[in-house]
Amino acid sequence: xxxxxxxxxxxxxxxxxxxxxxxxxxxxxxxxxxxxxxxxxxxxxxxxxxxxxxxxxxxxxxxxxxxxxxxxxxxxxxxxxxxxxxxxxxxxxxxxxxxxxxxxxxxxxxxxxxxxxxxxxxx
Amino acid sequence: xxxxxxxxxxxxxxxxxxxxxxxxxxxxxxxxxxxxxxxxxxxxxxxxxxxxxxxxxxxxxxxxxxxxxxxxxxxxxxxxxxxxxxxxxxxxxxxxxxxxxxxxxxxxxxxxxxxxxxxxxxxxxxxxxxxxxxxxxxxxxxxxxxxxxxxxxxxxxxxxxxxxxxxxxxxxxxxxxxxxxxxxxxxxxxxxxxxxxxxxxxxxxxxxxxxxxxxxxxxxxxxxxxxxxxxxxxxxxx
Amino acid sequence: xxxxxxxxxxxxxxxxxxxxxxxxxxxxxxxxxxxxxxxxxxxxxxxxxxxxxxxxxxxxxxxxxxxxxxxxxxxxxxxxxxxxxxxxxxxxxxxxxxxxxxxxxxxxxxxxxxxxxxxxxxxxxxxxxxxxxxxxxxxxxxxxxxxxxxxxxxxxxxxxxxxxxxxxxxxxxxxxxxxxxxxxxxxxxxxxxxxxxxxxxxxxxxxxxxxxxxxxxxxxxxxxxxxxxxxxxxxxxxxxxxxxxxxxxxxxxxxxxxxxxxxxxxxxxxxxxxxxxxxxxxxxxxxxxxxxxxxxxxxxxxxxxxxxxxxxxxxxxxxxxxxxxxxxxxxxxxxxxxxxxxxxxxxxxxxxxxxxxxxxxxxxxxxxxxxxxxxxxxxxxxxxxxxxxxxxxxx
Lengths: 123, 238, 395
Hints:
The structure holds three protein chains of three kinds. Chain A has five helices and one strand, in the order ααβααα. Chain A has helices at residues 2-21, 40-61, 70-77, 92-100, 115-122; one strand spanning 64-65. By secondary structure, chain B is α+β, with helices and mostly antiparallel strands. In chain B, a hairpin with a 5-residue loop joins strand 3 (84-91) and strand 4. The longest helix of chain B has 32 residues, at 2-33. Chain B is 29% helix and 18% strand. Chain B folds into two domains: 1-39, no CATH class; 41-236, Alpha-Beta Plaits. Chain C contains 14 helices and one strand. In chain C, helix 3 (73-79) runs antiparallel to helix 5 (90-110), helix 9 packs antiparallel against helix 10 (230-260) and helix 9 (197-223) packs antiparallel against helix 13 (306-333). By secondary structure, chain C is mainly alpha-helical. Chain C has helices at 2-41, 56-70, 73-79, 84-87, 90-110, 120-123, 130-153, 161-184, 197-223, 230-260, 262-274, 277-299, 306-333, 360-383, and one strand at 342-346. At the B-C interface, strand 3, helix 3, helix 4 and strand 7 of B face helix 7 and strand 1 of C. Strand 1 (64-65) of chain A pairs antiparallel with strand 1 of chain B.
């Protein structure tokens, strides 16, 4: 409950801060970018449905359709500067979610880093 | 008039057919090249046979490999996660001493799945018992119910998780039998890392698999077989 | 001058009431703050760990939930078994039940690792889980008691109060059974996994519920400078004594049967003799303070007055907390028997007694739950007609 209130307050702050800073759409670092599932306009509106469906299929049934996996999304869309979709005002996920004032729940558990970069680091 | 119509239909038919012929193999190839698109089935039941006679005292390779593969800290405090641990055993009557790796036993009738209020604990069709962390509310009832002390609760916020192994604060976790590796046709990290090849991983439902053949020829038991859970892990020489 | 003199005690009482409400509110706020801390830092700030997975919050929550069911005994005796002395007290018992249920459930919910996902418990339902059944049982209990209160307080619905009371009677038996079954279903834990727990919880609930009721009732009477009818006081006091004895019988049976099984003797030795704080709490906390002293205060001819009954009730509640601490936490501290016949040791606490030290935040959360129960009761009594009104002497 306390968390919810804090979240709402935080979102209000974010929203108002965003509104005073710029009136246009946010500038987003799209990483490598490119169109692999559907066009950006459709994806902007519907990506969460794809992710939700794919997550249930993967976790419960072991269907690992690479094209629709979160890991694969991050692989292309993480910034080429810091290999992440989070952390900066123009990061691919965070930038837009800040602008829209929608909390992202994914990255408390999921890695926000490009996995090929992580593999290089580990070896 | 009708002549033109016939011609037009004919043209449409051929062009659609040609397009289909041209695209279909591409679609098929695309599917094959991009991950596993089929659901796991009950034709497979993954299991392990652990040879305790070969498991060396003081050897911790399986634990280290698990920690590395799954991004666990390797900390040993009571609040740290341990998906696999080495247990040292001493027979109270004979005094015989040995050690073995202990982890989720991937039961056929898992108590954790029975008690989970949200269905977050579940068993995959191929016998791997998992926690769907999207549904886990962190009640820890599964930890109370597990007879093997196989589960850990994430007590602190985590950072830098492995891309293939999402983990997070406030949820329960345990050995996944390296499901992300198994789905790629690889072995679990512990089985691969064991220097004495004491962990044999394979399909219990395939009578021709190495594990099935060995289980037929050597004596092995399930831990706490009295509970009737039919575990996927078996131990030899206990 | 005269006016001042007659008004000031009333005004003082009014202020005292608001001061008490504020104190209760502060305790609730502290509890919520503790829950917030637990959520930001994780359960690392509690004493709970991978061996003792349920700790002090669960002791508080289960005490409140069990007592919430037991306190309704007062209404059942009134509505279902037609005892006028109890009938007059049925609304108060209903209010207390709702208050304690709310307090207990709040604690349980806020202790979750992911309390913000509680809605998942409603959208994804595992029918084999007794936890999931209890979600229905607890919410149903709220509804049943509210309906029951309505039938008692609304003149036109009076006719329905007996069937509603019967529904509540049945429902709370199932509810306490469900609470006991949470532990009964733990097949591999030596402390739990026995069918005696649900009936034991039911009988225990009678004793604790009665104790809570006595304290609240005496406070209300003292507040209003009224004295409780001697006949009623004696009956309720003796009934509480009877429940305490019955609860003790169940606890004794639980331990005696365990002592008979060779595989359980190690566990019993731990709980009753060797386990440090757990035997101490069992013998001193539950047996001495929670049973022997209150029974003396209730049945010894030189006691038995209002004052001693209140003290007895407080002692019974203390004994209740002790028993739950021993059962829930002591039951987890004793290691699982994964390899019978072997001595086991590992980095994960195999074969070792689990260590547990309740931390300030988790105790604050538990006490916060009691605070919620207090607030609901105090406000309820003030705004609605819950104070028992004596019906002329019963035969």
